[in-house]
Design brief:
Two copies of one chain form a homodimer. Chain A is α+β, with helices and mostly antiparallel strands. Chain A is built from two helices and five strands; from the N terminus they run E-H-E-E-H-E-E. Chains A, B: One of its GO terms (biological process) is maintenance of CRISPR repeat elements.
Chain lengths: 87, 87
């Protein structure tokens, strides 16, 4: 499936969270990653993030798209990340 | 359509961008908004944002979902925004 991940975590944990997410997804923009990921890997990523983030301070949102047939992405302004996986 | 908007703009323009986006979408998390929006309003929002952001410094991404039938949203950790429009 295609996942858009957005995180909002304490500065102390940003580097760790970003590093972990980049193992599975492509960085798009400050605090946003996206990409194709298997159910198994998504589960793994969530488990690993759970060990890093603090539930009372941090927030991570996963938008899971079973298909990208009905979606598109548009960027206004600066294009920051790579676009290997444009939907 | 359903839109997920993520912005990464210079601190100087954050308040203006957020205020403008909130006129059309629901705030979910730091720099993320989402919601149902008509084609006409999306066009309007883009035109208005174009006047606020600087193309060489700022970035705004729109993920447009023609249907939310194939998508889901999951939040880990803190739930910050409202959830009037959970997909």
């Amino acid at each position: 499936m295609f996942v858009i991940l957005v995180y909002d975590v304490n500065q102390k944990r940003v580097a760790k969270v970003l590093k972990k997410c980049r193992q599975y997804l492509n960085w798009v923009q400050n605090s946003v990653l996206e990409g194709e990921i298997s159910d198994a890997n998504l589960k793994k990523l969530k488990m690993e993030l759970e060990k890093i983030i603090r539930n009372d301070e941090d927030s991570v949102i996963f938008y899971c798209l079973r298909t990208t047939k009905y979606s598109s992405r548009e960027i206004m302004g600066l294009k920051k990340g790579g676009d290997e996986n444009i939907i």
